Predict the 3D structure of the following.
Amino acid sequence: MSDTLVLAVTALLAFGVPGWGVWGIWHIARHSPTRQRALTHVLGVIAGTVLLGMVLPAVLMGALDPFWIWLGYAVLAVGAAAVLAWRWPALKSGKGSHPSLVITSCILLLVLAMAGIAVT
């Protein structure tokens, strides 16, 4: 059961993170989202990349070195952050509360805490 769960989570991440990342880069570069929404896209890509870095070695089980696969995802996350930094001055600051940014930030903190526990 747990192997099936790990494979399902990895498959969702393997297809979802690049899709979210490419869509986020395109959305930030071609449209004018608020700064908070653009930051939400980038934080989501980073959280997915970190989470994939934790489950990918378990799925590959020593058959392949997961570093090179994960590196592609990390490059995509860095690209999303670079596009955000490039477009930041042109993006408007949104007014009011932004629950998506808060939720994504909390998810990223949770994923980083899980990664820290997994490493130790």
Q: What stands out?
A: The chain has a mean pLDDT of 89. The radius of gyration is 15 Å. The chain is about 80% helix and 0% strand. Residues 2-30 form the longest helix (29 residues).
